[in-house]
Amino acid sequence: MKKLLVLLCIIAICGMAASASALVGETGGVGYWKNHYGEYDLDYNYGNRAAAKSYIFIDKSGLLLALSYKGKKTIEEHAKRQLAALLLNIVDGLVETIPLNQGELELIVQLNPAREGTEATVGDALEDIQSAIAYYVSDDVIYVAITEIAKDLADEINNRGAY
After folding, report:
1. Helix pair 141-158, 122-134: axis angle to 10 deg
2. What would the pLDDT profile of 55-94 be if each residue is shown by its tens digit?
3. 50 within 8 A of 90, measured Cβ to Cβ
4. What 8-state DSSP symbol labels residue 117?
5. What would the pLDDT profile of 93-124 be if each residue is shown by its tens digit?
6. Which of 32, 41, 73, 102 falls between 20 and 30 A from 84, CA-CA?
7. Helix or strand or coil: residue 56?
8. If we measure between CA atoms, which residue out of 153, 114, 157, 115 comes closest to residue 132?
């Protein structure tokens, strides 16, 4: 009980919002970032810091737009949403040198066969995901499939939980 009380006091004193999905050391998915982006951007300028790590989003307005897509989305829009969440997770503390887990490794090899047999990292995944989105062509079935894999890879990393 004392530990819980101390934690609550620390949270209250620091002005931090407690969350079940993205506490320190955990990733948050698109839904988490869509609902909590404002508080992190206001307090820590997450939007501009995340956009600075991307060549897909020119600034935080593009990143925020991707998070807020509504209704039926194209695969490119789905991939951009996942990329936005991945960038926010990186700004929030997900270190780019962390190795990918087995499921993520399988996806990155599908996305970029040159990664086969390597110790691919979150940073490598970020690079390959952005590349897939940058070269997306909506009427080309191969590019659509590649973008789908990029989306799935970002989603896997975003929903891995503790890191």
Report:
1. 150
2. 999 999 999 999 999 889 999 999 999 999 999 999 999 9
3. yes
4. T
5. 999 999 999 999 999 999 999 999 999 999 99
6. 102
7. coil
8. 153
